[in-house]
């Protein structure tokens, strides 16, 4: 299956990364080392997660500021709205822009642990479309030279947990595009056809923004099971069996599987790959080496 490429994607595929804030001092030191290596690879951007209800907010802002001031990477800030009011979200957007961060991944986000959609404070949260509109509203309140940036959104090849159909997922993506989103990043998936099929249907329905495939080279059995939970699909039986046979730790298996999927989706027309790092640079950089997407400077 070959996709119809849209936008002004470069001829050679590009890549980007996701990291999350450290929760201990030791983890922060390791993360600093990690993002320096990721930055040296020359990604389009490095996105930083932001927990539900502002969990780890200070850590997110600190990491975004570190990326902005001490690396060459463009930082992209995740924003979530669950159990946050408009005024609080606006204040966060302003604070991130004050720190020099102008690219955002607009998400409604998951409910905090122990809560679900039956809770009124969760059900009443702003949608991702409303968040896009709010980001643009804040940009309108800022000086022109400090309000330029991209808005990314999430896409779900295997369906959002609250979605009733593929068509509903695509309709939401169209609504995000019409609200001002410039690119989408997919939730994790295991098989190339899941991404290629979703993008083909989305383009036929009128989606023109680039849809970046989100991939993660798992290194442990626990990570594989976590990805299966996030993807909403069983882990591939052959990868699961091989990981179990290896004793639960086999990063080379995760790298090889990710490379194979990435090759297929890039050949199918994907403009880029977005790699979930789990705050480890070694495995995602090995994926990029195998895909021949790193320039020589990234090996230094």
Helix and strand arrangement:
Layout: E1 14-19, H1 25-40, E2 46-48, H2 57-70, E3 75-79, H3 86-98, E4 103-106, H4 120-123, H5 128-140, E5 151-155, H6 166-179, E6 183-186, H7 192-205, E7 211-212, E8 214-215, H8 221-231, H9 237-245, H10 251-267, E9 272-276, H11 281-290
Parallel strand pairs: 1-2, 1-9, 2-3, 3-4, 4-5, 5-6, 6-7, 8-9
Helix pairs in contact: 5-6, 6-7, 7-10, 10-11
Describe the structure.
The chain has 300 residues and is of the alpha/beta class. It has a single domain (14-217, 270-279), classed as TIM Barrel (Alpha-Beta Barrel). The protein has eleven helices and nine strands. β3, α3 and β4 (103-106) form a beta-alpha-beta unit. The longest helix is centred in the C-terminal third of the chain and has 17 residues, at 251-267. 41% of the residues are buried.
Give a quick rundown of the structure.
The protein has 300 residues and is α/β, with parallel strands linked by helices. Helices cover 45% and strands 12% of the residues.
Helical residue percent band: 40-55%
CATH topology: TIM Barrel
Low-confidence stretches: 2-10
Q: What gyration radius follows from the Cα positions, in whole Å?
A: 19 Å
**What gross morphology would you assign?**
globular
CATH class, anyone? Alpha Beta
Q: What's the total helix number?
A: 11
Q: Mind describing the biggest β-sheet?
A: 9 strands, parallel
SS-based class: alpha/beta
Number of strands: 9
Instruction: Kindly report the spatial arrangement of strands forming the biggest sheet.
Output: 7-6-5-4-3-2-1-9-8
Report, as a whole number of angstroms, the end-to-end distance: 37 Å
Q: Could you spell the SSE succession in H and E letters? A: EHEHEHEHHEHEHEEHHHEH
């Amino acid at each position: 299956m070959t996709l119809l490429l849209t936008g002004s994607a470069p001829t050679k595929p590009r890549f980007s990364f996701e990291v999350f804030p450290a929760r201990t001092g030791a983890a922060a030191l390791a993360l600093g080392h990690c993002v320096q290596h990721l930055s040296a690879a020359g990604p389009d951007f490095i996105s930083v997660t932001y927990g539900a209800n502002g969990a780890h907010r200070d850590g997110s802002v600190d990491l975004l500021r570190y990326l902005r001031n001490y690396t060459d990477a463009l930082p992209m800030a995740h924003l979530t709205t669950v159990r946050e009011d408009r005024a609080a979200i606006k204040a966060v957007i302003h604070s991130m822009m004050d720190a020099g961060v102008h690219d955002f991944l607009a998400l409604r986000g998951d409910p905090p642990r122990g809560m679900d959609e039956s809770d009124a404070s969760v059900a009443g949260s702003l949608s991702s479309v409303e968040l896009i509109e709010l980001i643009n509203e804040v940009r309108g309140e800022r000086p022109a030279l400090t309000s330029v940036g991209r808005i990314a959104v999430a896409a779900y090849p295997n369906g959002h947990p609250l979605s009733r159909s593929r068509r509903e997922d695509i309709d939401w993506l169209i609504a995000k595009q019409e609200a001002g989103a410039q690119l989408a990043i997919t939730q994790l998936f295991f098989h190339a056809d899941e991404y290629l099929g979703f993008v083909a249907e989305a383009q036929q329905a009128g989606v023109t923004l680039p849809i970046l495939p989100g991939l993660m080279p798992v290194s442990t059995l626990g990570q594989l099971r976590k990805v299966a939970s996030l993807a909403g699909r069983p882990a591939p039986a052959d990868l699961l069996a091989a990981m179990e046979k290896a004793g639960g730790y086999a990063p080379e298996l995760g790298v090889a599987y990710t490379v194979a999927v990435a090759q297929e989706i890039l050949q199918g027309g994907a403009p880029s790959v977005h790699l979930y790092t789990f705050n480890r640079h070694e495995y995602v950089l090995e994926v990029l080496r195998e895909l021949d997407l790193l320039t020589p400077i990234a090996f230094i």
